[in-house]
Design goal:
Largest sheet: 7 strands, mixed
Structural class: alpha+beta
Oligomer: single chain
CATH class of the largest domain: Alpha Beta
């Protein structure tokens, strides 16, 4: 995606979101989603120096900031030697100061005492002294003016009126110019690269480049990558749009269950919340120092309490130099040399070693100069001077010093070292022509597959891993798990094949390893987009109910699956919690659960696996006309999803649409008593869900949980 070179007129909607208005005071940008700087680099007046931020600084649907002003500030200050003016709601100026301080200068206080693993060789690096060197006595006020927005204010001869609905009316020299809408959304813009026709099959070991370049390059995606280890993905600093890009690249999101967050610059953390909100909880690996900075930054940005943000993912706190087993690889982490706390890492997986520098100044002359100036201790100096070039695979950043490693230094290394290095964080135009270095190549089709030694029990490991990722099988007793290895077999189906035909006798239970299937004709009702995918199962209902198949299951792609024959399946789950859960689910899946759930305003975008989770909580309830379904003043023991019938609230609101909540999901979450009676005015059917289990479901699915916070008026 190239930068714009001209405007559409007075107002231009930027490709990545927000609006640019051409005024007598210069360009004024309304809203600033990530990477909009790339949209404006080559305009006649260049990157704007005046920004007006909307009331809400975060787009919860996309999991993205619409107030990412960090990179425009860098560009204007370091390259143009000018301040950026940011107009902000007065109540949010302190929040924006917090965001910028964390991103630009890092934490104000650092104590690494409990972050260093004691192995007799470790030392505590003085990150504060290093950060102070890079900061060079600068303050936020030197780089940016944060100005409070009044209801009406002037920028030179431009008058801006902030309307009650959050929109803006603009006059220039007394003449009406344009209206700017209240909602300034983020738009996903990215190079897709070469994609795959069939779903991506993750390797035992591989590396997929999410972006090879930096935040000022309009030609390429910003840097980040995925490590594939034991067929599962770890996202390293997911850039903006990476989660959406992966979906478009035919990569199932459930294959990626964790993130390594190296630091809190916008080009490294912008896509993190997008992944957090995608489906079920992910695990984030980083140090407590970096995590605390990330939470402060995003709590200020979203205005969500830090305690609530922490509930949205699993945090795995790292200690420097301690060994961590992640998906079978043995990782170790270290603090690199950068302007804010930043970690790099190396690991051993089977017969391969790998190191990632992260953002890092790795140039001996500059490191020596810092040592002579007293910025680095002797141990830190020797540690930095002895970068482990002996690793088999080296992923190293490059950029402009002193924040980054000059590519000229990497290109001066011996040929045998250069041949092991893949360079990240650099524009293609800046990469040397005569070199043995490799430039990271973007795209799922460019995934690198290093040769590794094979293990004897890989398939057994894979079977156990797949079944462990299915909620219902997590309660399977150990003695039954041993039986699982004896009865499961791998099967394959070509795209378009009928895996199950309606009205036939049930013979197998299936778990999808890779691919997508559609379920059609269930109860003779066509349900749109009923698709099951990786780590999901089907075929259990007819086996458990001892009846013929109720639907066709067709392979939408080539399918790889595990199959268990009917007799073995029944024996495997007999007298276990799995049997009880599946019996209940088999009855619900024969009803309209999918359609009812998809009709709900906050559940309409649930994935098939999330729907299965919710179906496990549902129980059909019936009420007669005039029954009080929910009582005013009570705490909700249950919440209901309406199947059919009509309910009236005390305030006169009628609930008669399939999937509507009978009750108040927001007050349930906040443990507050109901404000109204909910009375059936006809006979009704509804799915009953225990209140505590519903709240836990929301917490286990952060995107839905956040929807309940940002869509209060719509759902409550």
């Amino acid at each position: 995606m190239k930068s714009l070179t001209q405007l559409d007129g007075v107002i231009t909607q930027l490709p990545r979101g927000g609006y640019l208005v051409n005024t007598s005071a210069g360009y004024i940008q309304f809203g600033s989603p990530p990477e909009t700087l790339k949209d404006t680099l080559f305009l006649p007046l260049g990157v704007p120096k005046i920004f007006i931020l909307p009331m809400e600084h975060f787009d919860p649907k996309q999991g993205m900031s619409v107030a990412e002003i960090e990179f425009p500030i860098y560009f204007n200050y370091f390259l143009k030697k000018q301040k950026t003016k940011i107009y902000v709601d007065p109540a949010h100026i302190s929040n924006m100061i917090t965001v910028l301080n964390e991103a630009v200068f890092g934490p104000s206080d650092i104590d690494l005492t409990d972050e260093i693993f004691e192995d007799g060789k470790s030392y505590i690096p003085d990150l504060k002294k290093e950060m102070d060197f890079f900061r060079d006595n600068r303050n936020i006020d030197d780089m940016v003016e944060l100005l409070p927005m009044a209801d009406s204010f002037n920028i030179d001869e431009v008058k801006i009126i902030r309307n009650k609905d959050g929109s803006f009316t603009i006059y220039d020299k007394g003449t009406f110019l344009v209206e700017i809408p209240a909602h300034l959304s983020f738009k996903a813009v990215y190079n897709l690269g070469e994609t795959l026709k069939e779903p991506f099959h993750p390797p035992e070991f591989g590396i997929t480049c999410l972006g090879p370049s930096h935040g000022f390059d309009p030609e390429q995606n910003t840097s980040g990558f995925i490590l594939w280890i034991n067929k599962l993905g770890i996202m390293i600093d997911p850039p903006a749009n990476s989660t959406l890009w992966l979906k478009d690249s035919n990569v199932n999101p459930k294959l990626i269950d964790s993130i390594i967050l190296t630091h809190c610059h916008a080009d490294h953390d912008a896509g993190t919340f997008q992944k957090i909100l995608e489906e079920t909880k992910v695990t984030i690996y980083t140090t407590p120092t970096i995590m605390a900075s990330f939470i402060r930054k995003y709590s200020a940005l979203t205005r969500i309490p830090s305690s609530t943000l922490k509930e949205m993912f699993n945090f795995y706190p790292l200690k420097i130099n301690q060994k961590y087993d992640i998906h079978g690889a043995l990782f170790s982490f270290y603090y690199s040399l950068h302007s804010i706390p930043t970690i790099g890492f190396h690991f051993v997986y089977r017969n391969k070693t790998f190191i990632y520098s992260s953002d890092h100044l790795n140039e001996p002359a500059l490191i020596t100069d810092l040592y002579k100036k007293g910025v680095l201790s002797e141990k830190r100096y020797h540690d930095l001077m002895n970068f482990p070039w002996d690793k088999d695979i080296i992923y190293h950043e490059a950029g402009i010093p002193p924040l980054h490693t000059p590519v000229s230094y990497l290109n001066s290394l011996p040929e045998e070292i250069q041949r092991k290095i893949t360079v990240y964080h650099i524009a293609k135009k800046d990469f040397p022509e005569n070199t043995f270095l490799k430039l990271a190549r973007f795209g799922i089709a460019e995934t690198v597959y290093p040769d590794i030694e094979k293990h004897e029990y890989e398939e057994a490991y894979r079977i156990l891993d797949v079944f462990s990722r299915i909620d219902v099988f997590k309660t399977l007793p150990f003695e039954k798990i041993k039986d699982l290895l004896l009865v499961v077999k791998k099967v394959n189906f070509l795209k378009g094949s009928y895996i199950i035909r309606k009205n036939t006798k049930p013979d197998y239970f299936y778990v999808i390893i890779s691919g997508n299937v559609s379920v059609t004709g269930l109860n003779d009702i066509e349900i749109k987009d009923k698709v099951y995918t990786t780590f999901e199962y089907f075929g259990e209902a007819s086996i458990l109910n001892n009846e013929t198949r109720k639907a066709d299951v067709i392979a939408l792609t080539d399918i790889e699956a595990y199959a268990i024959d009917k007799v073995s399946f029944l024996r495997l789950i007999s007298d276990t919690p799995v049997e009880e859960t599946m019996q209940k689910l088999a009855k619900i899946r024969n009803e309209l659960s999918w359609k009812v759930i998809k009709s709900n305003s906050i559940f309409k975008d649930l994935s098939s696996s999330q729907i299965t989770q919710l179906e496990q909580l549902c129980k059909i309830s019936k009420f007669n006309a005039k029954d009080i379904v929910q009582a005013k003043g009570s705490l909700q023991k249950y919440i209901y999803l309406l199947i059919n019938g009509k309910v009236q609230r005390d305030d006169g609101k009628i609930l008669d649409k399939m999937g509507q909540f009978i009750g108040d999901i927001c007050r349930l979450k906040e443990v507050k008593a109901l404000e109204y009676n909910y009375t059936a005015i006809s006979d009704i059917e509804a799915y009953q869900i225990e209140g505590e289990k519903m709240v836990q479901f929301l917490k286990d699915n952060p995107g839905i949980y956040m929807s309940t916070m940002f869509q209060y008026q719509e759902i409550c």
